[in-house]
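Risk register update: the risk that structure generation would not scale has been downgraded. Supporting records follow, first protein first.
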Amino acid sequence: MNATTVKLSVRNWAEEDRPSYKLQNYGAGSLTDAELISLLVGSGTAQYNAVEIANHILCKFDRNLSKLSKAEFYELNEVEGVGSQTICKLMAAMELGKRRQMAGCPIAPDLSTATAIYRYMLPKMQDLKIEEFWVLLCNQNYKLIKPVRISQGGITETSVDIRIIMKQAVLANATIIAAVHNHPSGCIHPSKCDDDLTNSIKKACQLMRIHFSDHVIVCDGQYYSYVERGRL
């Protein structure tokens, strides 16, 4: 180990300043984002210590963990000092965070409001780069029976067959359904196609005597509800 490495290595910091010491003695909440990521980075390189590399990673994604969670392998590989093992650890940690969000949902969540629908679907949709359309099948108390992905599409749209939605509702004995799709662009405003689809679902539900509770468009950090806007 040369003199430069000794100078830069986190192992040569005062013990109380090391991220691993702080985590063990004060909890993970006491660490900065860079310090947490540095524990995934490990030993660092001859040029940069683990915390410096972690800061390089954060800077590439505007110090925004939401952007980091969407990063592709090749994007992380562009950061100096970051190898394939570190990238795998980072992507695994981000995926575990998403799964933890989903595991926190109750077995039969109450989906009687647009906010509840948004919170339930966000972990499934927040990092998607293409549109997906889901229906949430519920009982008469707005308790979820099961979520069903109806279709996947491109960046700006996805094709939806009303017959499949109705078939899924009947098979599940659902008396209430909610429609949900995402806008990868981040624009929450519905398109004319979204409006037409909403009206078609509403008519089909009326015919089948199923309550169409809402159509929610999910974006990262915000949503659009047809019910809340008085359009359903």
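Supporting record for the second protein:
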Amino acid sequence: MEKRPEQRVAADIPVRVWGMDAEGKPFFQSALAGNLSCEGAQLAMISHSLKTGDIIGIQYGEKKARFEVIWVKPAMVPQRNNVGVMVLPKQEVPWGVVAAVNRPPEAGGHLGSEKRVFARHKVQFPIEISFTDGKRAHMQCSSTDIGGRGCYVETMVPLQMGTEFIITFWIDSEKIKTTAVVRASDPGVGMGIEFTALGAHIQERLQAYLEKIDQGFAKAASQGEPA
């Protein structure tokens, strides 16, 4: 029997799952993750065909990570599967706080990263990506998940992890330009981007601007108006 030294939490949490299925087609769906640990989880009711060794992305709340599929079993519901996943090296499970409920603290350790201090906002925020070598065309795109320290851009052909470039965006009437790097690249889905040279005061201004946009959408929705 497989030895399982890590503590597991039976709670089911809603997650978003994406990647390439067993047929090489991109997919994106909602699912439930249970049997949580600091290393992996079990995904329930996956409606796409996956196989052992596939790499997928999972998001819980504002955090994302990449995982390897370690087993696939048919669910009770037809055309649905339960999938076991393990987080890739140098990645943190998005449900770290949940998984830590029954895990004793490690000496000298801490949970999660102190790097991100800003909440992400799920708004369409236009940005421009350009390159210092001037050999590649500028990319006009929109972030779908953005905060003061970075964003996520949905694209079928994401840049490779570690690619450095320049991001330009606007806060009201002011043009902001900063360097950035790709921290996560999910083929057929998108890429996670970290702003690497954005001053603290600009981060705070951007966060306040995003919160104002988010509140405007929420107000319009509550009044039955198109956002």
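Confidence is low (pLDDT under 50) at residues 1-5, 101-116. On this basis the risk owner (M.S.) recommends closing the item.
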